[in-house]
Structure formats: C-alpha cells, structure tokens
C-alpha cells in the first residue's frame, strides 16, 4: 500500500464526464483519489446545488468507485460543489498529497508508455508515479527527453541513466526501459508527435510562467492533443504557497 | 485553522412535511464538510468579501442620499452619516464574532435562529429577505434617477418622468441576467468597486482641497447645525440604508475562504471604508453648494456638485459612477436576497422548492424570481425615502437581535460555540450595539415603522402556520 502512488482522477460528475474505458485497468496499482465535482454559477450557493444533486452524484460516484476497486485500485473519494473547479482540484491534490493527476481519455490495454523527462527537478516524483503505476505490469517504458541547445550528450546521459537506475531501484524491470532523445524541436510538439505511437503519457507539470498563462500549461496542451490518457505529475508544493 | 465542528441539530417538520437539511460536520478554511466526503468549496477571498460589502454600500450613501440628507440636517448630515457608521461598526464587530463561529450561508438569520430559536429566526429571516427587496428597490429607484439625469444631460426632453420605468427595466434585466447565469459576476463586481473607489477618491480629494479654499474659491459659509439637533438623528435613521452592505457579506459566509480571518476583516473593513467616503462626500457636497441648494437637487445632487467643481467632465464622470454604483448595489442585494431564500428553505421555513436549482443554467430561478418579482412592485411605488427606511428598519431589527444573540450565546456558552474572533468589550459593546440599533428605529417616520411591524407580524404568523414544529436552536 505504501508504494501505491496517489493519483487524482477528477470528474465533472454531473455533466456526463465518466471514467473512460481502460482507465480503471491503467490505475489498477494506484491509490485513486476519485474527485467528483460540480461547478455552479456564482449566483447559486454551493449548498443549494448540494441539496438538489447530492444523491444523483453520490450514486454515480458509487459506481465509479466500484469499477476502480474491481480493477484492483484502492479508492478514496470526494464530492465537491464549487464555484471554481480549478481551486477544488488544486486543493484536493494538496490535501490528499497526490503525486499525479490523470487527464482521462479512453484507452485499450496499455502496452507502452511515454515518459517525458524534462530535467532533474521533480524527477523523484516522476519516478515514483511511473514505478507505482507501471512497475508491476509488463508495460514498456520509454524515457523521452527533448534536449535544449546547450545541453551536452553527457548531461543527457547522466539524466536518463539516473532515471533508469531510480526506476530499477523502485522495482521496474530495466530491460523494459528504453530511452529516446530528441534535439532541435519545440518540446511540446515533440512530445505530442512522439506520443502518437504510445498508449499513455506521463509528464511533469511546469512552473506557471507568462507563456503558460497565455497558452495554458504544457501538460494541458498535450492532454488536449493526445488522444489517450495523460498522467500529469504534480510539482512539490512549496510550504509558503498559499493564496491571500 | 483546525476543523471546527458545528454541533447544532435542527429537527421537526413544516406543514409540507419537510425537515431542515442536516448541518455540516465540520467547517474548514476551504470547505464546509458534510457526511465526511461531501464538501462545499469556499471560493470568495478577502477582496471578494470587501467588494461585496463596499459594492453594496457605496451606491446609496454617495449617489442617492447627499441631497436628501443635506436637506434634512444641513452640514450636520456629516454627523448623521458618522452616527450611522458608528452603529454599523458596533454591529459589525459582534456579527464578525458570530460569523467566525458559524460561517454558514444566511448570515444574520442563521446566527439568530441558532442562538435564539426558530421564532426569532423566522422573523429575522423573512425580514431579511423582504428587507433586501426593499433595499434593492431603493437602489433601483436611485438608478432610475441617475439614468434620467443622463437623458437630461443629453438634452433629450421626455414628456414623462422615466425614473420608475427605468428602475423597473433594470430590475427585470438584473433578475433575468442572474437567472440566465452571467459568468464572472464576482470578478466584475471587484472591478466595478475598484473603479468606483478610484474615481471617488480623485473627486473627493479635489473637493476637500477646494472646500478649504486651496483653489481660491470661497466656499459657501455654512452653519453646522443649521436645522437643529433632532434632524441629525432622523437623518441618521434615514441614511442607515447606506450601511446595510456589511450584512450582505455574512449572507455568503458559507463561501468565504478562511472565514475566521476574512469575514471580520471584510465586514469591519467595508464599514470603515464607506464611512470615511460618506462623511467626506457630504462635507464636500455641502461645502460646494450649501444645504439648501443641495437639497433642491434631490437624488442626483452629486452630479451638480461634480459639475460645480469640475465642469461637464466631472458631471459625466459622476453620472457614470452613479449608474455603476446603484447597479452593483441592486445586483448584490438581489443575489443576497436569493441566498436568504436558500437559507430559509434549507431550514424548512420556506418550501424546499424555493431554492431549487435550474437544470439548464444551474441558477436558483425560484429564489431569484421570488426576490426579483416583488422588487418590481416596490420600485413601482417610487418612494425613495420610504423604501430606504423600511429596509433599514428590517435590518436594524436583525442587527439588534444579532447583538442579543451574541450575549445569549456567550452566557449559555454551548460547547460548539468557539469563535476564532471575539468581540472586545463584552458585554458593553454588543449591548450598546443592540440599544443603538433598536434606538435608531425610534427616529424613523411612523409609516416606515408601521410597515416594518406589519412585516414582522406576518413573518411570525407564517412561522406559526408553516413551521411551528421546526427547531433550529443549538444545544444549550
């Protein structure tokens, strides 16, 4: 149980979002934090929506919980009525200490997974998610790195070998791990292009910057363009990160 | 903040067989938690809370009342506003304590029903709902005056007075808009309030300097208590409507983040901010014209003050600001009124149907119509002063009872009552707050008092008929 990574699965439960096919199997080895949420307009008190919709939402979550449990996952669940879905997701990640968030999309059996390795920051959490979710099944894992112009082959080698070692230590069969390096490409496009040949993607969340403010987080953009499920590994929360 | 259990168990049934909804298990900084895994997210921050309070209040005291108040009390109307602000502060402090102990939607109604029982709660809750309607109607009539002034400014001669028509139009539009689900209303409210404060600060700074003769003009010499002392108090009673906004913050207490900190700051802060603005406004306005002429200008006196100080651009700026301010006040009040309906129906004092949420837009259409419909009828009366006073009356009853509820709760000291903010100077301060609230009512017109009392009696009879068996009071 301790090495099961906590993965958040957020669903807009009353707006028809459901658990897509294949996802329960994908997360069979994870600790699933199932978040059903319902976003209501500002003129409605959250309690008002609760009075009316709680029963229906609970029934659906019961079903999903069963599906995940039957696949082998451990499940914890929340139902939240909110004005601000993003705040709810962020808070749940924080409160349940989730390593990653799943952007769900239907999938078949997952035979191979693309793991985007960006740099040394957050690599520990990335490794824990990959090992926890894919370690016990015979999925082939491809570590994928898009190099920057000033990065030497040596740097890249150290980074990826370090990751392979780490995954090995966490119980992943190293013979199933491949590495791939790409140069002279925009990381985002490169990841999306490469992802097409894979069944699922694992990638890290970047720090918010002006670019991400305008175009959205890279992980969201990948999730929009890639047809399968994406696991977005969360940054470690700084202790003083509190709004207002 | 540690989790704070709200250990109140409502019981009983109303005539329709509905029981009050269950109380939450815990209240945290970010959520209200029900049944362990159902949460209501808190999404309004300190800025949002301040914007609700200031945005509701700033419309009336600055854009509708200066002419009326100066007409009644002369330059001493500044004192009237200061008295209003003081009473509001005396109530805002105890309200803050109650709100941090019970950060739940419904505000004053919730505190009183849990502290003093269902009968008081019903009177206050129905009174709050109706009081907010009277207040919204008052803001809408004010909006009508400003919109008419825009026509006058454009030189469009109308054969009839468009004030009431415009008020009705905007009232209907606001109701439809809120049912149709306008996105980002809260953000818009924050921006509107920010713009208003900037415009007013610039305008009033200029006005104050001018009043002290910095720009070489002689201001009108003014005797302070030109109308005597008694009108200062009656005017305070009239203009108290300008201070109703801080209670609106409490009606969304269930949605405020970190309620223990943000609720007191938002309520007390908004009262302090608007009090300063009001007092300075009246000072500038009366210095520019003198009370007599100011009084003749009526509801849109501030436009003339701005024209006098800064010419046409000033008049246009204040017209725009007045439209924005009265609009945002009316909007905030309609939304609060619908929150009040929700709180009442949650507790089975009104049919559960009243807080039903519309499937298409996700908005509480019944509650919004229940607020919007009667407002239109009230706007149609066009009685600015009467509407304002009845709204004040109903709120003052609630304010006084909130202070009493605080004293009752502190004396009983039930286990669940653990506010994170405690009012200083107990029991004197809440005691004075209660006396001042009830006392101010004595200075109102008999007609307003009469209407207010009838509303209270009807509320009580409704409770006896519809929900006599419902108990809401907390454990002793």
Automatic annotation (TrEMBL), chain A:
UniProt entry keywords in alphabetical sequence: Plasmid
Annotated protein name in UniProt: Universal stress protein
UniProtKB/TrEMBL annotation, chain B:
**Localization terms from the record:** Cell membrane
Instruction: Tell me where it mainly resides.
Output: membrane
The UniProt annotation puts the region (Disordered) at 1-33
Pfam families named among the record's database cross-references: AA_permease_2
Is the keyword Transmembrane helix assigned to this protein? yes
Signal peptide positions (record): none
Q: Where are the transmembrane segments?
A: 44-69, 75-96, 117-140, 160-179, 191-209, 229-253, 265-289, 309-337, 358-380, 386-409, 421-443, 449-466
Organism equals Salinigranum rubrum
What's one GO MF term for it?
transmembrane transporter activity
Q: Does the keyword Transmembrane apply?
A: yes
- Identify this protein by name: Amino acid transporter
Please give an example of a GO cellular component term from this record: plasma membrane
- Where does the source fall among the domains of life? Archaea
| Swiss-Prot/TrEMBL keywords | Cell membrane, Membrane, Plasmid, Transmembrane, Transmembrane helix
Q: How does it sit in the membrane?
A: Multi-pass membrane protein
Task: Point to the regions of Low complexity compositional bias.
Answer: 16-25
- Which InterPro entries does this chain map to? AA/rel_permease1, APC_superfamily
